[in-house]
């Protein structure tokens, strides 16, 4: 059996957290290494490492909870902007292998810094790729 993630240990009551929201499917709590005041983690109670592994029910529960929690974080912190971050896999900088979303308020210069270096999408390549993705949707 593999070692439990820190989030599984929180769900099992083995580790404390600063809980901000909980329902039957979702738990949200403050990050203990925040990028800014109010940095909140939102996790499903279903124990899956990657977003694509979640059941539709758990994904829908996260979708319902995220806007509600984001509104609360904004109101409580006074922030007017925020990032929502979700990583899947080590190459994407995931460090805890339990699905989780970060709600990171932007307060002054604190928050998430992003370097974005886009390149143009070739029209023919885009058309072929969109078709391939459509065909893979279950």
CATH class: Alpha Beta
- Overall number of domains: 1
Radius of gyration from the alpha-carbon trace, in angstroms: 17 Å
- Number of helices in the DSSP assignment: 3
Low-confidence stretches: none
CATH architecture: 2-Layer Sandwich
List how many beta strands DSSP finds.
5
User: CATH homologous superfamily - what is it?
Assistant: HIT-like
Beta-strand proportion: 15-25%
Predict the CATH topology.
Answer: HIT family, subunit A
First-last Cα distance: 31 Å
Q: How much helicity do the residues have?
A: 25-40%
Structural class: alpha+beta
**So what's the overall shape?**
globular
N-to-C SSE string, H for helix and E for strand: HEEEHEEH
Oligomerization category of the chains in this entry: single chain
Q: Provide mean pLDDT, rounded.
A: 95
The main sheet comes to: 5 strands, antiparallel
Give the strand line-up of the largest sheet.
Answer: 1-2-3-5-4
């Amino acid at each position: 059996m593999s070692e439990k993630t820190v989030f599984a240990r929180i769900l099992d009551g083995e580790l404390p957290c600063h809980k901000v929201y909980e329902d039957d499917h979702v738990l949200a709590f403050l990050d203990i290494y925040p990028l800014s005041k109010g940095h909140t983690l939102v996790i499903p109670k279903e124990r899956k490492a990657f977003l694509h592994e979640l059941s539709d029910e758990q994904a829908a529960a996260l979708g319902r909870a995220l806007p509600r929690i984001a509104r609360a974080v904004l109101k409580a912190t006074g922030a007017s902007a925020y990032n929502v971050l979700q990583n899947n896999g080590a190459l994407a900088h995931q460090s805890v292998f339990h699905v989780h979303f970060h709600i990171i308020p932007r307060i002054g210069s604190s928050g998430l810094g992003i370097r974005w270096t886009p390149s143009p999408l070739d029209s023919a390549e885009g058309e072929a790729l969109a078709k391939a993705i459509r065909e893979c949707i279950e």
